[in-house]
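Here we describe the complex-level prediction in full. Unlike the single-chain runs in Section 2.1, the two entities below were treated as one system.
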Amino acid sequence: MIRRELKVNLRGFVIWTGTMLVLLLLIYLVYPSIVSDGKGNKVNEMLEAFPPELLKAFNMDIAGLDTAFGWLKSEGFVFLYLIIGIYSCLLGSNILLKEESEKTIEYLAALPITRRRVLLDKTVVSMIYILSMIVILGAFNMLALNISETPDNRQLLLLSITPVFPAIVLFAFGLFISTFSHKTKKMLGISIGMVFAAYILSVISEMGEKVEGFKYLSVFTLADSRRVITKAELNPICAVISLVLFVVFIVLALVRYQRKELV
Amino acid sequence: MSETILEIKNLTKYYGKVKGVENLSLTLNKGEIFGFIGPNGAGKSTTIRSIMNLINKDSGSVMFRGKELVRDDTEAKSRIGYLPSEVFLYDDLTVKGIFDHHESFYRQYECSAGIHAKRQELVSRLKLDETRKIEDLSLGNLKKVGIVLALMHEPELIIMDEPTSGLDPIMQNVFYELLKEEREKGNTVFYSTHILSEVSKICDRVGIIRSGELIRAGQVDEISDKQLTFVTVTADDVDALAAELGVKVLSKEGDTVRFANTVSDDELIKKLANFRIRKILIEEATLEEMFMHYYEEVTPDDKT
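The structure predicted for the assembly as a whole is:
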């Protein structure tokens, strides 16, 4: 089961990871010319004209754009959280449901395997791919930045780990909500919409005290990259909450899937 | 007394307010082919999906070898073969790939020793090319792959839903032979179909389902031998004759009527003696006509 799922989901993993690597590569190739000859300082000066809330939302108040590492700490990780989040949520909402959508479920259900095993094997495969994507992108960033400049490698390593927290929660939530549907088409829009909604809430929550509460509604709060940038450490509470939410949604998905009518 | 392999007790399933099956009970014995027939929408697939635990029963139970067949009983599932009416498999695999994949699930079970040899035998008899991709297979070849998957682990209970759709007549005969061999080995086949000729060809017993209720079950020969005849009479007053007999007229043309008769020949002749009969033809109902009669005439209250 695991071997088959690894094979089936490999293509999607390669496309998503490959596309992100190409985009990052392009940025790293172009960035030196953007910030050369003191242009980076001008960019930073320009940013000073922006409202502080907006700068805070993108970590630009604590990371300048005058280096590629500075870009990665601000806009770069926004992009990574979003893409890894969408990939994880889509994987979660599709990996079980596609058996129903492609009508192979009657074959699968007749095999001597429990539904729990099906769900857990698919979860293991998804975790392998989500974590592999995070490791590959992290390793690429580390390699590329160390070639072009001298980044704080500890900070970079910790930042590279942060996408794990929102990603595993989004995967488990996607898996859970997929147990309410029979068609993957319906889940595509819902999954992408959910990730964007969570991201927008996270951005809005940085824009003032009145809306700060929104951060508790957004899964991206769990990444807490600000803490890594300012204190050079991961937020242990966010890590625990992520794991708890992951387990809770997997258990809920198991309960739902056990009773689901597979037609 | 025959050993019971599968026992469905008071199975009821509604889809919202729409009845799937209601209070359906039947028993399958070891080493028999049980034909399960009914028109489209009668509840055949609902019954099968309930047995396979694909859907949740509202009430009732399914017992396999004396034990309730629950969703996660993998040991029981390893002893059941299932062929759905439409075979959907993983398109990216070859025929060999899906058979290898299938075999891998049975390694820890009793049947694993002979599974590969059985697979090779079935592939040879059904003339399958294992190198072809699933997505390139015709409906008939896909069905043949489904048959191999349902039989290769030598299951004690084989559940098949419209198994011959898509098979050419030569392959149908090979398939019937395979089923008869399974029966000889003591395995049981639950054979759902709406093709009546298949039932008389290979089934030992038959159950007729209509509107979600089992209206008749028994030996195929027994049902065929029941006193159902079709009578065509030409008489002076056919309306009065039909009223006297209490039959529903199937067709009427001038002084000639045709009706289905369930009383004995002796009783029929005595009743007809009150009328002036010009011509009479009594035909024995074929199995097909018998089933049609049950579909069209028998209400659920009449079940025996």
